Structure formats: C-alpha cells, structure tokens
Fold these 4 entries.
Entry 1:
Amino acid sequence: MVKLSDPITIRDVVFKNRLGFPPMLSFSSNRNGAPTSGSLRIYEDKARGGAGLITYENTNPDPPLVISASMAHIGTEKEVRKYKKLTDKIHEYHAKIGMQMGYGGIIALMFSGFMNMQMITSGPSVLDPVEATSAQSSMVPGFADRLKKLGSGIHELNIEEIAEIEEKLAQGAVRVKDAGFDYIDIHSGHGMLFSAFLSRFYNRRSDEYGGTVENRCRFLVETIGKMRKAVGEKFPIFVRFSADELLDDANNIKDGIEIAQILEKGGADCLDITQGIIIRSPDGIEVPTYVDHGGYIHFAEAIKEVVNIPVIGVGRIIDPRMADKFIQQGKADIIYMGRQLLCDPETPNKYFSGRIDEIKYCIGCLQGCRNGVCIYDDYSGAKYQELKPSIELKKIVILGAGVAGMEAGRVAKLRGHEVEIYEKSNKIGGLIPLVASEYKKEDFMNIVKYLEHQLNKLGVPIHLNRDLTREQIDGLKPDILVLATGSDATIPVNLKDKANVINQDEAILKTKPLGKNLIVWGLDTYWRGGSETAITLDSQGYNVKALVGPELGTAQILRGDGDSGRSYGIFKELTERNIPIYTEAKLLDVNDNTVKFLDKNKKEVSIQADNLIYCGARITNAKRLKEQFEGAAPEIVLIGDCKKPQDIGVAMRDAQTFARSLK
Ligand SMILES: Cc1cc2nc3c(=O)[nH]c(=O)nc-3n(C[C@H](O)[C@H](O)[C@H](O)COP(=O)(O)OP(=O)(O)OC[C@H]3O[C@@H](n4cnc5c(N)ncnc54)[C@H](O)[C@@H]3O)c2cc1C
Ligand SMILES: Cc1cc2nc3c(=O)[nH]c(=O)nc-3n(C[C@H](O)[C@H](O)[C@H](O)COP(=O)(O)O)c2cc1C
C-alpha cells in the first residue's frame, strides 16, 4: 500500500514524498514581479519543513497588465536569474519546486469591484461582468455598482490572440525550466483564463474553442502541446483545474471527469484537482471552517478512477494522518496542504519522524494567510524575524491566560525570562472556547491547545482561579506586569435596564434565558463575529432576524476582500437559512416582546422578539486595572483585547511585539 512518505516519480522527476505545498499567492514579489528575500523565506520554510513538492504561487508569463506591487511574473531573463537563486536554495533540502503559471483573465474584474479600476479583461465570451463575478457582486456592498459605473467588461479572445497566448506560455515555460524549477503547473482553475474556457458557464463560444467539453479544452490542450515541444520530454507539466465549480449552472464533477480524460490524452503529466471559482464560489478555494476537513477529496477520488496519471487532492486537510489515509485509500497520489503549512511548515518532518504532538494546527480563519504569514505568528513567512535570547532577564507576571497572555508568556520564556501567568477563571484560552462554540468554529481551539502544549513544555506555570489583589502582586515583585485581561461584552447604556436585552457572550454561552424569537443587532464585529452568532443561534433552532445599525453606512456586513471564502461562506449560510437582515436600521425601542426600529427607508418597523442580542463593541477593563496596580511593577504593559478589543491576530501580534521588544 502506498503511503504519504513514499516517493513518487513523474516523468524524470522523483519527489521524495507525497505531501506538497500548493500554489498560494503571497504577494511577496518586488515591484518588478521578481522574488524577494521574503519570498525566499516563505518557500525555504516549506522545504526545510520536509514537503516533497512545493509549487510557487501563480506567476504571469509576462509582466501583468496591472503592475501592482507583489504580483509575480517571469517575463524576462532578469527574473529568471532571481528565481534560480530560489530554486537552488529549495534543492538544498532535496525538495522539488514547480512554478504555477497562469493568465488572469476574468478574475481581474476584482480590481474594478474592490479597487475602483476600469478593467477590460480577456475571456472566452462576452458576459455581464456582474454575473461573471456573482459572489462579490452579491455580497460586497457597492461592488456591482462600481463594475457598471466603470464600464468594466470582458473582451472575447479571437483565434489569433489565443495562438499568441499559447506561444507566450510555451516561451514562459522555457524560462521556468531555465530558472531551475522541476515542473510547471498550468493554472486552469479558479476563474483564470483557461478555467473560463473550460467552464460551461463562462464559455459561450460557438467556434472550435467552445461548446463541447473537448472544444472547451482545446486552448489548454494546444498550450500543453506547445509547452511540451518547448521544454522537452523530461520536464513534467501539471495542470490545476476546478473539477467542480460548486454551482448549479457551471461545471460539475461530470464535466471534471471528461476534462481530466481529455487533459491526460492531451499530454498532462499530473492533475491537480481543485474546485470553485474565486469570483463565483470562493469557498472552494479559500476553504472556510464550514467545510469539513478533507471535504473536497471526493473530487480527486472521482478523477483518479478514470485516469492513469497522478492526481493531487486539496482542501482543508490539516492532519497528516488524514492525508496519509487518503493516499493509502487511493483517493489521491499526492496531498497538498496549504494553510496548514503556512501555520506549521514543519508538519511533514514532525509527522514523518513521529512527533505528531508537536504539530501546530491551522484554525481555518482565513484572516492572515497573506505574505505567507499566519495569524499565529506575525513574525513568520515573509516577515520572519529570528528570536534571540534577551540580555536583561526579567521577572514577568502576566494576568490573563487568553491567547495574548499565553503567547506573550511563550515568547518571553523562550527568550530566557522568568514568567508566570495568573488567570482569574477556571480555564485557559480566554474568549476562544466561546468563539469555538460558535457554528463550525471548533478548530479555533487549536490555537489554545498549541499554546497550552508549548507553555507546559517550557515550564511556564499557569495559575487558574487566581484574581490577584494589589498586595499579592506587590508580594511577587515583578519587573514587568502584563495586563492581558481581555474585554467585556457590553449593552448600550439606554438598554441596560431591559431584561430581554442580552449581550453576545450571554447568548452564545446561554448564561441568560433565551426565548425562541431573537434579534441579533450588529453583524460586523470581530471578523464577522455577529454574523456567525446569528448563524449559530439559527443552527440551534432559534428564530433569528438581524439588524445592522446606520453607523455602518452601506452595511459593510461582509467585506469579502482577503478572505472571500469565509465571507462567502457566511453569506451563503445567512442566505440559505433565510435570516432576514435589516440594514441601516436605527433602533428606537425595545419592549417585553417587540423591537421597534426605523428601516433604511426611515419607515418604522416593529418585530416580535423575545430577546435583542447586542453584538456591538466590547470594552476593556484596562483602565480600572491600571489604576489598581499602578506602581506594582516598574513597567506595566497592556496587550491584546485589554489594550483595545480587536481580534486574535492583533492579540497575538501585540503579545509577540511586547516579548520581542524586551532587551
Ligand atoms: C463571539 C466572538 C467571536 C469572535 N470571533 C473571532 C474570529 O473569528 N476571529 C478573531 O480573530 N477574533 C474573534 N473574536 C475576538 C477574539 O476572540 C479576541 O480578540 C481574542 O480572543 C482576545 O484575546 P485576549 O487574550 O486579548 O483576551 P481574552 O481572550 O479575553 O482573554 C483574557 C483573559 O484574561 C482573564 N482575566 C480577566 N481579568 C483578569 C484578572 N484580573 N486577572 C487574571 N485574569 C484575568 C480572562 O478570564 C481571560 O481568560 C471573537 C470574539 C467574540 C466575542
Ligand atoms: C491566501 C491564498 C492564496 C492562494 N493562492 C493561490 C494561487 O496562487 N494559485 C492557486 O491555484 N490557488 C491558490 N490558492 C488556493 C490554494 O492553493 C489551496 O487550494 C487552498 O488554500 C485550499 O487548501 P488548504 O485548505 O490546504 O489551504 C490560494 C489560497 C489562499 C488561502
């Protein structure tokens, strides 16, 4: 039986194991599209961590139309030399590195919707740009209007232009090979140009490049053929494509199976099976926690049944034991782990050497992931900074065992300081157990388990049920007192005496009685925290409606940029659950069983509700504590929500910034 640790040979290239890092935009290139020292760090991390194959993020064969900082390309010999340094480094670890090459096409309409730039992008057919970007157009306020106002659209490629692009890609592949890459991966998924040709939704052509699946594959197959001629017989050509677009009106796995068979015949050496279209179904690409672990592997499995070339599976696979099982069950030949290797690049080494307990697991938040940086560690990926021992060793007392307090303790201890953590409640993790009890957010507990494990290993004591008095702190004589005591949920002053108005924490934890009919007020808090609270309560059988206050203007419920997959997941849940949302609403009054407000048309609306759940701003308890503990230590530092209630990423960054600044 084949295992994850077994090598695999594709054409002349031997990959030392079957655990790979997929192409993931890091935006770490310089303004000329070449890799930087940041890029090198991101990819070297993965090689050092033991991945058998690493696919460099999507790269243009020539300088892209929109030259913006950090968009990778390999358009000239100058970039080739820079990439060569990177590939040489990766080879020192006996890992193989490929480059993903693709043409953007329709997905460039995102520049219009988000960045207000007029775009005429290339595609197989002319299509209404709003329809073409239905995910963002429906969920991001103002997106569709901007597309229309700017007159952005799709230009239908003619036959000469198709041939020109094929040639460019073939020449680009030669540069990829010259730069020392071991294989090329043609990006034909997610709404890229080839993907649009493969798609029966985007491709409405009636010439030999449209209509039947075979015709829709023609552009890609011709490109593979030209590339093969250009790069010779030994160099593997992978194709990544969306085997299912996760939409009723677009390609489904039946199309995917046909496409796979045609690509195999057309000369592809390995099929990298992904799903979704970033502008129509981004939850197949930026996979939110609403999707089960390994929830898309059946697509790879279905393809593997019909082809004789290796197949790659991907999508929310974070546990290498699951990856190994998929390989052993024959569901895929190679497994890609994306965000998991951003979170812990050492995952392969740890698994293959039996140190599974040491693995730091991705929480699936999609809040970081850029610059190859994970929410766990703002000093990782492209922003990596080595941790050095401190010179002036201090006694540090930390109040609060939330993520901020625990991370500060971990890093300070690693740098040699004496650290103790005092936690008022009977548990560690602060808000995280509450967050993780929300709808399908249980993976958020991974961060607490990791910090607990590290602190135990380092021997940092965490004293539970300890609400220290001033005298007790004086007795400990700390050099530095860290307040990582978090925040409290609030209720607006004018509603405080209303028994049926409760805060977000009380609603999630059910520490106050809840009626059947609920109104959730405020959806935009804490990375969609309010939206996820509404979904959580709906999933528990409550009858939920939502109000969004006028202060949000055009109702920025879902921003959808940078984490499209999670935003879209929330949008889908809110829509499919039919949770009514009243935007730009102004609350007027709350009575025993009615909530009265002005809707966006300034019309008074009364809704029957047993409770109003306020999901607005939280407040820090720092002011009171600072006064209470003033003078208890030469230095008093505030971190995380205690400094300013925000999110996990900020709390972790605050903690590290403090611990790294110690001399
Ligand atoms: C419903 C909800 C959903 C959220 N969803 C997300 C999300 O999806 N993504 C995201 O990034 N963020 C989210 N957040 C925000 C995130 O949970 C917080 O920003 C983060 O957990 C803050 O960590 P912290 O360590 O600073 O504070 P906390 O987690 O609040 O920890 C503070 C700790 O200090 C303890 N403490 C208090 N006073 C004392 C004292 N005097 N002495 C000792 N200990 C004390 C507390 O008991 C607690 O354990 C969400 C928040 C909520 C409420
Ligand atoms: C930040 C980010 C950037 C990505 N960039 C690319 C890309 O350049 N090319 C591509 O084919 N897929 C891209 N993807 C998709 C990933 O390759 C992968 O399929 C996805 O993250 C699911 O795998 P995971 O759950 O293991 O992270 C990206 C995903 C994320 C989250």
Note: The chain has a mean pLDDT of 93.
Entry 2:
Amino acid sequence: MSEKSPLPPFEKGGSGGFAVDFWANLSRRLGSDLLLTQASGGNTSVKINDHQFLVKASGLRLGEVTTDKGWVLADYQAIRKGVPDIEKKQGVEAKSNAYQSLLTSSTLTRGPKISLEAGLHALLPNRWVAHVHSIAGQLLGLMPEEEARDFCFSLWGEDLKFCWIPPAVPGHELCSKVAENMSNVPQGQTVNLWILQNHGIAWGSDSDKKILGAVDAFEEPLRKRFGLHRYPPPVIEPLASHQRPAPKGKTWYQVRLPGWPTCHFDTTPVLTDFPGHFDLWSDTPPDFIQADDRTAHILAASPREIDGHAQVFYAHALVSTIARQEGWFRPLPPAAVHAIKILLIERPAEIY
Ligand SMILES: [Zn+2]
C-alpha cells in the first residue's frame, strides 16, 4: 500500500512505522477471537500525530490485516470538524451520504475505503481505539444500566470509566450519538470503555498494551458470568441442491448450534450485525431461514462468505439466548433495522 500513498507516513524508524506494527498486532489479536469479532465487524485505530490517524480499512477482517494491508491513513481533525454538519442534513440517506463523503474527503491514502466506524475512532480522544463486537460487551449493553454499573464496579472499582451509547445505526448515527455524549465525559478523565448498545464496545487508551490488558481483564469475568464457554461455535454443512435449490452461483448451507444447553433464538434483530448480514425484511427472497430453534439455512456465494454469516448467526443467537434467559432482551428499534436495510451497511463487499 505504501507505494500508492501520496504521503510517506511510515518512513523507516519513524513513529508511524512503529505504530503500524503495533496496530497490526493489536488488530490480529482481537480479530482471532470469535467472542470478540465476527465476520468483518470490529475496527482499530491509532493517532500518530496531532491530525493523522491510521485506521482499519473496510472489507478486510480484523484478523487478516498486516503492516501492508487493511489500513488507511486519514485526517481525524477534519472528521471531527465535519461531524456537526451531518446532523443538519434531513433524512437518514442524506445524513449517511454526508458522513460517507466526509470520511472519503478526510482519507489521505488511495486504495481501500476507510472503515465505516472511522468517525467513532476520530472522535474518541484516546491515541489507541479498538472497537469490537464482544459478546460479553453486547450482553453488558443489554443489562439494565444500573445493574451493569454495579457489576462492573464490583470487578474493577474506579479503574475503568464507562460511557453508554444508546442503540444507533452504525456509521453516521453512531458517530453523532458519540459526539453528543462527548460533553458528558467528566473533565480531566479518560473514558476507557464505550458500551455501544445493541452493537458492541469500544476501548480507548494511550497504549495498545493497556487495551489488550483491559480486554483480558474485562472478558474473562464477564464470559464466566454469562457462561459463554457452554455455547460451542457453529457447525456449517452445505445443503444438497434438492434440499433447498439455490440461485446460480450460490449455495444454501445448514448452520447448526450443536451442544448448546439451551437456545432462545428467533429472527427478531437484537444486534446491528444481524440485519446488516441477512435480508429478511424486504420483498426479495430471504437469504436466511430459521429451520428450527438452533438451526438456520443460510445462502452464500463462497465458503468464506458462509463462514462470516455463520459467525454473525452464532453471535446473534448467543446474545438473544442469554439476554432472554436473564430477562433483558431488548430488540433493536425498528427504525434502526429499517435504516440498516436501506443503507446496506455493515455488509461491505469483502476484499479477499
Ligand atoms: Zn461495529
């Protein structure tokens, strides 16, 4: 990628050169854990000076980035300056278009597009930011806020600072809601953990090592609390064409959740990823069919695509199951589901 760049940001021995190594390590580490990231969800960034940041490109999975691919360089000050104008636009499509234009005009490298969540990364004050679709974090976001705060305080005391962001359409609306909440951040304190309800979490810190340490300290007790180890990953099997005929170039797959002690899954969207990946709410033939309470039939064009879809099905089923058991199932607002469908977001064409 560097030869395509109009800027030489990562000269050998420069601070950016070190940053890209650490950024790739952090990204791959977070991207290798199914309970943290599924399909192409999740993104990471590092601010390398007072106006440039390196942020994940869209289309690649977090676990696949390297020092040479999967990142773009952009001007985070330009993004911050442009965010207030997005809210002045009328309608979800106009706002989304304005946001996308802002991200594009702020991108300094040619080639891959910048991550849809670059606005979130630009706004957060921390040098390092990691956004993941943590299952434990998504459950914490569904838990009643007071109970969640008490639970977190019992684990970490004052060491972690939290901020809750209500359900939002990924991209422009999430960015606007984070911008609104920036004024709630107490002066002189760093908010380390942003709970993005019905979506995921974002960590911010001055160091990549501190983020990795915080992820471990956060995930382990929460996974234990929710019993996540009792829910094995999905099993994928292609369906024979006589079982479910598929359009040309595509295959129906059966995705099962074997060995789960219980499963309370239906197609009511609780996470933004679910309507982003599957089309059950338009007039076109569905690409996701619930076959029974722990099996889905999913249409995909390649083994790689079904792998990503199955990960999102798994995450959605797991969060639904535990949230229903606990009595805190709170679906995504219908307006957000509708907006995700018309914007076709969180489902960018993946670069292989
Ligand atoms: Zn996300």
Note: The first helix runs from residue 15 to 31.
Entry 3:
Amino acid sequence: MAKFVKVGRVGDLADGQAKVVQVDGQRIALFSVGGRYYALEAGCPHEGGPLADGVIEGMRIICPWHGYDFHLKTGECELDPDLRALTYPVKVQDDDLLIEMA
Ligand code: FES
C-alpha cells in the first residue's frame, strides 16, 4: 500500500532549489519550482549523475554529467526517449512536504 513520508517543510527549499532526501533507503532529489514540488530518483538513469546538482530549465532538470534532460513531473527525457527517471508524487500537508512511496 502506498504511504506518504515526510521529507521536509515548505520553506526548506527556495524556488529553483533542490536537495537530496533519503526515504526507505532510496535517494530522492526534491525540487522546488514555481511554488510546486517534484521528486525524482536522485541518480540519473543514464549513468547515475546527481540530478539535484543539475540546472533547472523550465520544467526540466538537466543532468550535470552529460546534459540529458528529465521532465520534473513525468521523468521523460527529450534527448533520449529510452531514458526515463523515476518520479514520486509530492504533496503538501500542513506545510509538511510528503513523498508518496509505493
Ligand atoms: S549521468 Fe546523467 S546524463 Fe549521463
């Protein structure tokens, strides 16, 4: 059954910032963009680059290692449609940031 895990508070991240959180042994990159929060697997699905250290362009995070792009919401990669980052739903509840884990 899916469960929501608290990973921080609204205000922990300024707009355009990211941080890595650990949930159930998985490293997840949490992004704040335009007042919304997005969560992707922290390791790039290409070769494991640190997505939280990438550059945010619109709704995409650009991996700092080789420049592949991943949509913050869907995880889809435009440059290589065979690549896709795992994404996790994020919800805000009473100023807590919660990630849904399967
Ligand atoms: S490791 Fe991310 S683009 Fe290569």
Note: The chain has a mean pLDDT of 96.
Entry 4:
Amino acid sequence: MITVYPELDLAALRANGAALSESVLAGRDYELTSSGRAAIARALTAFGIDANDEVLVPAYCCLAMTAPIQARGARPVFYQLREDLSFDVQHLQAHLTSRTRAVIAVHYFGAASDLDALRLWCDSHQLILLEDCAHAFYTQIDSRLVGSVGHAGIASIMKFLPSYDGGALWFNAAPRRPLVQLPPRSSSLREYWSLLERSRLPGASCMRLVSRVRAHAMAGASSAEPPKSTMASATDGGLEFDPASQQLAASASAAWLLRRDSARRIKNQRCEHFEQLARAIRTMPGVRVFWSELPAGAVPYVLPCLFDRGDIAFASLRASGIQVFRWEFTEQHGCETTRRYARSLLQLPVHQALGHSQLLKLSNAIRAAAQAA
Ligand SMILES: Cc1ncc(COP(=O)(O)O)c(C=O)c1O
C-alpha cells in the first residue's frame, strides 16, 4: 500500500536536523496534542465555545474538523467556496446569526489562503478565527510561515512526519480560559509497534506478517470486533474523534521526530515528488492536478487531482494499492463547488519517503484510473 501519510524510513532516523525549525511551530509557543482534531477541540474549549454555539466551517472540509465541534454540542454551519477553494466574506456574512462564535479557515493541501480580510471581518463581529494549518506545516505566504492571522492555529504533525500521532495548537490572542498544559506522554509499545510495522525499515514486512497472523488468530478466538483506538484510526486516515484524546499530549516519539527529522529534506522531497507526478499527469487525459503549478510558498500535503470520473478513478486507485482520500460526505453541505469536488477531487500521496519505484507505480496507477471506463 502506498500511503498518504509518510512512512518512517532510514533517512528520517539518520537526519540530524530539526523538523520543526522551518515549520508553523517555529518561534511560537505551542502545545503538542495527540492530533489536529484534538487541537481544534482544545481551541474551542479555550475560547469558551459551547453547546448551541455555531461555528462557520468551509463546506469542503474533513469530518475530523466538524467532529470536535459537535462533541462540544456546538453546530458547524457551512460556508460556500469558490472554484479555487477561496472564500468570499459575503458568503460568510449570509450565515451569521446571534449564535455564531467562530470561523475555521483552511490552507488546503499545503497552499496558503489569504486570511487578512477574514480576520478583519471576524474582529468586527467579535468572532474567533481558527486557522487550520493541518495541511500546511511548512507553507509560507509572502515569505512568512502561515499560522499568524487567526486568533489561534492548529497543525497535524502526523500528516508531515512519520509519527504515530501528533497535532499542535497555538494562540495568537489570549483565550478566555487558559489551557492546562498537557503532561508529556511516553509512547506505548503498541504505538512503537504500529510505527515500525508501517515503516520502510528492515524487518517491517516481518512485523506486518506477525500482525496479520495475530489478527487472524484473534478473529478465530472471538467473534467480537477488536477494540478500536481513535488515535490509531487518525493515523490510518480515520475521521472519528474521541473526546478523551483532548487530554493526551503527542507521544514522545512524535516529539522526538519533530526535533530530529530534517525540515529541508521533507520540504524538498515533497515539492520534487509533486513536480515529477504533475509533469506526468499533464499528458494524461481524464485527470488534471488541482493547481496548474505548485503555488508560491506551498509545500504539498497531498497531490490533489481532479478526475473526470471520480468514482471509477477512486475505486481503481484503491484497487491498485494506493491510499487515496476524498471527502464525499461534503456533497450535502450546500455549496456548488464542494458538490462537484466531493467525488472528483482525490488526494493522493506525495510524501517525502516515496521511492523511485513507488512514484512510478503511482504515476501508472493515476493514468490507469483516469482511463478506466
Ligand atoms: C483540513 C483538516 N483539518 C484538520 C484535520 C484533523 O487533523 P488530524 O487528522 O491530525 O486530527 C484534518 C484531517 O484529517 C484536515 O484535513
């Protein structure tokens, strides 16, 4: 399986850099959380957003963004987006009620959104702007890292580093309720196992075999479903949210990788992989990359592609062993752009640990998916 999230490889272990040095966390006071969704939940708590409040969320969004809002008893209200996923403040204005308390804005797939006008609008209506940098760990806008416009910002570490878990939260404006700092958390054996078995390190395939045999044996011993961990599901691209995960810090291994891995390597490899795949896709009928070229300052989280026949392409890519994400549930969010993208916009792997043969496999799978009848 070629995964969207980066796998641990020898290059990450050998790197002696600082993955956070050129990231949205650089030079900030931040707290490490168990995931991006846990960081959203903690931000809502800190700003006192409660039951019956409304939070404006872009219609094209991930369930992991709305679940923490609903977990507080608040209501996500969706605002429309333009074709390039930018927004018009007029659209937000149309959804404003006496219950609106906050707005979430996203830097999609690693390209910066211009949020200055939105911040002014939020200030004029006493709303909190939460800047969602889950896709934009290394993204710059006008040579500055994103994350400084919102009253608070969140990041998702596991989308950019080969960690089992990890998110981050920071404040650019004082929250109403100060947060209790999360105590450092050591990684469990289960987390280390999961990290290593999903890795590209020697011995990982043996570990995967052991896991498969064990799962098989357990399935034989009991018909009950094995207990699910929300954090594991977040790491595997799952979208559930367990409110208890708000009280957990990022694991020690995620914090170690943040200090140890190389920002330069991650940024360069991701941009290079993007360029290589985008070049190949230009000659393929039935598919195009969402951006005509990599936007200035962007470091891609995924390779976003628009397929003429999204459903067929999605099934074809999955059958080829490619982990591809899409947000089909956003069809219902009352936005024409989002309705079109819900099934046709596929998020493909572009991460730093992809090797030459994986890139070739990806490019062949994309061509086949675009041509599948
Ligand atoms: C835009 C956006 N924000 C937030 C999240 C939540 O991040 P995490 O998966 O780290 O909880 C996601 C994740 O899937 C996302 O796509």
Note: The radius of gyration is 20 Å.
